[in-house]
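User: I'll paste a sequence; please echo it back and then give the predicted structure.

Assistant: Echoing your sequence first, then the prediction.
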Amino acid sequence: MTASGTHTGPPAGPGDASALDDLDVEEALALVRAPGNDRTGRTDQADRLEKAARPDRTDRTGRTAPAHLHDHATSWPEAREIAALAARRATKRPAASVALADALGLVLAAPLEALSDLPSFDTSAMDGWAVAGPGPWRVRDGGVLAGHALPEPLTDGEAVRIATGARVPTGVTAVLRSEHGRTGPQDRLHATGETSHGQDIRPRGQECRRGDQLLPTGTLVTPAVLGLAAAAGYDTLAVVPRPRAEILVLGDELLTEGLPHDGLIRDALGPMLAPWLRVLGAEVVAVRRLGDDAKALRRAITTSRADLVVTTGGTAGGPVDHVHPTLERIGAELLVDGVAVRPGHPMLLARTKADQHLVGLPGNPLAAVSGLLTLAEPLLRALAAHPAPEPYRMPLREAVQGHAHDTRLVPVALRGEWAVPLHYSGPAMLRGIATADALAVVPPGGAAQGAGLELLDLPWDTAGIGVCFT
């Protein structure tokens, strides 16, 4: 249990006695608050996707959208699609020019075009001798090193020592590798094999000519891209800027240090969300602790300049759950109001401004993780112009119990070719996710041993460049 004293867990379906054991306060309140409580899973996907795409705050009839638009929870796949589409339709953010050292993990906002020929001069590809004409050759004193001015030309029958990367003198017909030549009497150089014209010379423009497009817009900046950009003459890159995120931690019962006492508990989400959002590619501009103060919440949302505002707890219908009433007062448009997923059912997504969205996470830790990966991750990915990852599946080493109607996200460890379900996967627990490699997407009704399930990689587990979109 964390923010606002709420919990997360699956509701009981008709005749589903086992689900009663997992029913918790926050989800029960969310179900009571919902106008229709239709648990059949029926959705009007076209209407919801159209609503996510509209930058205004009116419904299809032209009226202001009500605060609780949906009569039932959005399906889990549809919620992710709506979040990505909403981000793509937000006010376009201008490209940023950043130094190469700061561009890792971002996406190119303009094509990468060569600023010069590569290589920009004829270059030796090997250590050895630059030779002119047929051998044997008379070896000139000295040598040609990389980074030095253009050396004196060679005439037929001459050779000179040359280093890899050095400029090839005028008149040179080939580079003879060190291991392919031997010197004899009177400083004569002899080839130990055949020598062909242009051998081991990288001619100017071999890789590209000035103005050639090297990479298109939308390319992820990896270490290799940074190397190519530097070689092509770039000091800065035009990139899609990192989405800015602000975290609003709600709940009077939360402690920032020490042991729980007197009904107060430690805040698990404040320390977890900022680094999680950073590894998802966001720039976290602030983490603010507001308690259960409706006025402070409204002021924080309306004055925030972040692209994404993330709130913790307060998404159900309890006496101090202020997120829905606040969104209604400021005229925000609810795009997702509850998702058919366990844990994390009472999550929400709202458009607060033309260029800003809010993701309301449930207060329980694992339920909040579910909300991050369901709504915040696809929204941040789309804002950063990252493509959606290719889905993949792995078989379960043991059966997993499912919810009667909803998708379930279960922490798993990857062991060889198997996904192993982990214990301690309740809505308020972090012990399972702390040792997990991924979350398995369990369909309604559960999955048998050996069933192949879609997996959501945890962003740090892919061990890439410090920024990874699952």
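The radius of gyration is 31 Å. Confidence is low (pLDDT under 50) at residues 1-43, 55-71, 463-470.
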